[in-house]
Amino acid sequence: EAQVTQNPRYLITVTGKKLTVTCSQNMNHEYMSWYRQDPGLGLRQIYYSMNVEVTDKGDVPEGYKVSRKEKRNFPLILESPSPNQTSLYFCASSLTGSGEQYFGPGTRLTVT
Amino acid sequence: DQQVKQNSPSLSVQEGRISILNCDYTNSMFDYFLWYKKYPAEGPTFLISISSIKDKNEDGRFTVFLNKSAKHLSLHIVPSQPGDSAVYFCALSSGTYKYIFGTGTRLKVLA
Q: What does the alpha-carbon distance between residue A28 and residue B78 come to, in Å, rounded to a whole number?
């Protein structure tokens, strides 16, 4: 089954404790992206990757890091999480960078 | 400065009637326009799209209209069904690998 998986689905952590949210897709897609969803703001793009070892900033990259060492994986790293990073996070992938994207189920992160 | 706006946070429609969801944008650089549907506790799923060279695209009960001069995008669902109740996001792409999403409209279809 074609899918995008994210782990963990739920995470509660404390300020400053480094964390990684994993994302994996099994569709051989070139393009992957991370979004955060906040009430009243919709989905905002954090980072995206056009291919292995090629990444670029979206609209809200501050406080986040990404890496793309393999085509299927695109982890999101929060080196020092802060309460304003409490949000619902989605990973997505697509064949190209301009069409339909497939989204993961989401990761709800709470930083206290 | 929001580049994409969905001015109606919520919409209620009777089953069988037409649902019209709207999306306005400010920048002419966008050349591909998409609609996604999102149920609670799930990721968004792709619904329908249109490129800037067209003004209409249909897929079953769903039709997307693009008015480039007005910078306006709309999604028509007819007939609406209770299973269509969800949050709908418009998303715009400029071919530079960036996507801009609207804030979403919560559609409730009343049985």
A: 35
Chain A from 69 to 108: CB within 8 A of any B CB: 90, 92, 97-106
Chain A residues in contact with B43 (beta carbon < 8 A): 4, 90, 92, 103-106
Nearest chain A residue to B99 by CA: give it.
A45
CB A76 within 8 A of CB A20: yes
Torsion of CA A111, B1, B5, B8, to 10 degrees: 70
| Cβ atoms of B99 and A101 closer than 8 Å | yes
d(CA A5, CA A95): 16
Residue B10: its H or E element: strand B10-14
Give the model confidence (pLDDT) of B2-38 as tens digits.
689 999 999 999 999 999 999 999 988 888 999 999 9
pLDDT tens digits along A31-82: 999 999 999 899 999 999 999 999 999 999 999 999 999 999 999 999 999 9
The two structure tokens encoding residue B83: 């299973």
Q: How far apart are CA A23 and CA A6, in angstroms?
A: 5
A1 inside 8 A of chain B by CB:
no
Rounded-to-10 torsion of CA B76, B80, B82, B84 = -20
